[in-house]
């Protein structure tokens, strides 16, 4: 959803997903003289609430004795940026944002007449695509403030405390997954699933209930290679009948894994919907590391997944399956990707699709966004680090010898997952998903980013969203069981992915910069302090070579309804 309003010399552009809103502001440069920032008032029409949004930054002169993790009203401590994000909206609700320019001095603020923009958040349940990102920031100031960094199943944590923490961490992903299974209401439905890690008991029990209580025809393929022990332990604990389970165990190499995470819903034996994405069926996958669940209500797509599932149930070796997957969907090229949904399954006979992804990234118009849990294709790395005058925002789970990317391009922002272990400035101490939710050692696997997402020109007229279970690596394409969906030309879907990407990117970017600055600035240079000189924060938004200017211009150039 994209909208724009122009009023009182101020232009506000809004991009909304189903749980996040981005506001971008623009005004003539001469009107910025003396500008201290923007106060942002939000009215929720559905719930009849109106108040000024809050932020972390504040004027030292008027904050009083600020305490750690305190939030400050933007009425008194305005936003010193031309972009603001609201990640507290609700699907289906209607909001009015009043963006108010603030001038004067911290102790004598002048609020001028602003610009109002009205937006209705899309209802995720009425769309062809429904997308659910979990909070993805288990290591966060908000979690520390709300829940004191509790481990949800630790001794002494009450069931109510645990559920509140899980509800916050899951952000609806867990509920959507369980509801998808519950759609299979009676014997006229069937469920076909394929999973890598299959351990989170409420999901296992949901499948069991569908089979035993509602007479649903259920069949589940699960990894019986690398995750055999953990999966079987959970299966036994849940008491799922073995006759509805199919272990995926044929292998050409012990390193090959059955890495899918999808469910197909069939009605009267006809595939109608698919749940897919990056989310493993574990507590850490659902509530901890950043993940996405993506529902596709499209019979053609569901049919392709079902055909793939039918191949998988035979437990084929790779040199059979890699030919079958290409019977479902041949490789795309840079020139033949059609608008709509394209589905690719692995293993494949060649890794040429990775070069195609790199070509799309090399030919973008204004913006590329990427989320990578592990090391990825050298072709994509070359494009990411290439010097251009356009924007590339990249998030990688951890920095190591295989993921460290070096670029001299100041338009190219590459960040890595991190957390404030000891707190910093006015932030509290944080934790991460490995410490909160993992039964394995906390250093095993990914603790921050597990999404496999690339967005090509998400704010353009023909955006491309690439998402699924497959990491962007040779092994993932050539050897593992995987699925990837590519959606071209769907602006509403791109907006949804983009707003969530911005949420996650900003979270880790702030921490990366804070840690980078740690020990290099004195107390008077606290990055949470607002500036009293307008040039100290405004100037870069009007420098045509600056990243902030280019980011603002993307929204100015956006074609809105």
Automatic annotation (TrEMBL):
Pfam families: PLDc_2. Residues 445-476 form the PLD phosphodiesterase domain. It comes from the Bacteria. Gene3D superfamilies: Endonuclease Chain A. Coiled coil: none annotated. Belongs to the phospholipase D family. This is phospholipase D. It comes from Chryseobacterium aquaticum subsp. greenlandense. The lineage of its organism: Bacteria, Pseudomonadati, Bacteroidota, Flavobacteriia, Flavobacteriales.
């Amino acid at each position: 959803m994209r909208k724009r309003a122009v009023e009182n010399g101020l232009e506000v552009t809004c991009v909304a997903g189903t749980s996040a809103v981005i506001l971008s502001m623009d005004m003539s440069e001469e009107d910025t003289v003396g500008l201290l920032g923007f106060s942002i008032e939000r009215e929720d029409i559905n719930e009849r609430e109106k108040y000024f949004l809050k932020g972390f930054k504040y004027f030292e002169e008027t904050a009083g004795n600020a305490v750690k993790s305190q939030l400050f009203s933007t009425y008194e401590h305005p936003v010193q940026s031309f972009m603001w994000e609201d990640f507290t909206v609700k699907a289906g609700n209607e909001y009015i944002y009043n963006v108010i320019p603030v001038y004067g001095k911290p102790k004598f603020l002048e609020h001028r007449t602003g610009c109002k923009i009205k937006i209705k958040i899309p209802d995720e349940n009425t769309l062809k695509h429904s997308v659910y990102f979990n909070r993805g920031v288990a290591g966060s100031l908000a979690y520390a403030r709300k829940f004191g960094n509790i481990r949800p199943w630790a001794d002494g944590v009450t069931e109510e405390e645990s559920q509140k923490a899980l509800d916050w961490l899951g952000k609806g992903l867990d509920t959507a997954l369980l509801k998808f299974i519950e759609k299979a209401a009676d014997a006229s439905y069937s469920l076909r699933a394929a999973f890598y890690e299959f351990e989170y008991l409420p999901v296992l029990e949901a499948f069991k209930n569908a089979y035993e209580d509602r007479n649903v025809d259920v069949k589940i393929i699960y990894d019986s290679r690398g995750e055999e022990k953990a999966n079987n332990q959970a299966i036994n604990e849940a008491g799922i009948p073995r006759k509805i389970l199919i272990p995926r165990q044929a292998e050409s190499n012990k390193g090959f894994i059955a890495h899918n995470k999808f469910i197909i819903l069939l009605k009267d034996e006809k595939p109608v919907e698919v749940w897919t994405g990056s989310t493993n069926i574990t507590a850490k996958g659902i509530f901890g590391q950043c993940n996405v669940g993506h529902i596709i209500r499209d019979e053609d797509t569901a049919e392709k997944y079902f055909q793939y599932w039918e191949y998988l149930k035979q437990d084929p070796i790779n040199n059979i399956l890699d030919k079958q997957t290409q019977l479902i969907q041949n490789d795309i090229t840079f020139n033949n990707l059609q608008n709509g949904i394209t589905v690719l399954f692995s293993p494949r006979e060649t890794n040429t699709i990775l070069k195609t992804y790199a070509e799309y990234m090399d030919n973008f118009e204004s913006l590329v966004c990427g989320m990578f849990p592990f090391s990825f294709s050298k072709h994509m790395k070359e494009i990411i680090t290439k010097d251009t005058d356009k924007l590339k925002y990249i998030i990688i789970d951890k920095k190591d010898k295989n993921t460290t990317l070096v670029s001299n391009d100041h338009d190219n922002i590459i960040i890595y997952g991190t957390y404030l272990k000891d707190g910093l400035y006015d932030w509290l101490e944080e934790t991460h998903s490995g410490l909160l939710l993992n039964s394995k050692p906390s250093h095993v696997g990914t603790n921050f980013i597990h999404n496999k997402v690339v967005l090509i020109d998400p704010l353009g007229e023909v955006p491309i969203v690439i998402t699924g279970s497959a990491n962007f690596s040779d092994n993932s394409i050539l050897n593992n069981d995987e699925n990837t969906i590519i959606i071209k030309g769907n602006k509403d879907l791109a907006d949804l992915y983009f707003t969530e990407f911005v949420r996650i990117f900003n979270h880790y970017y702030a921490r990366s910069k804070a840690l980078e600055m740690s020990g290099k600035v004195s107390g008077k240079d606290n990055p949470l302090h607002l500036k009293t000189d307008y040039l100290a924060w405004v100037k870069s938004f009007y420098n045509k070579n600056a990243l902030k200017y280019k980011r603002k211009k993307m929204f100015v150039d956006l074609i809105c309804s």
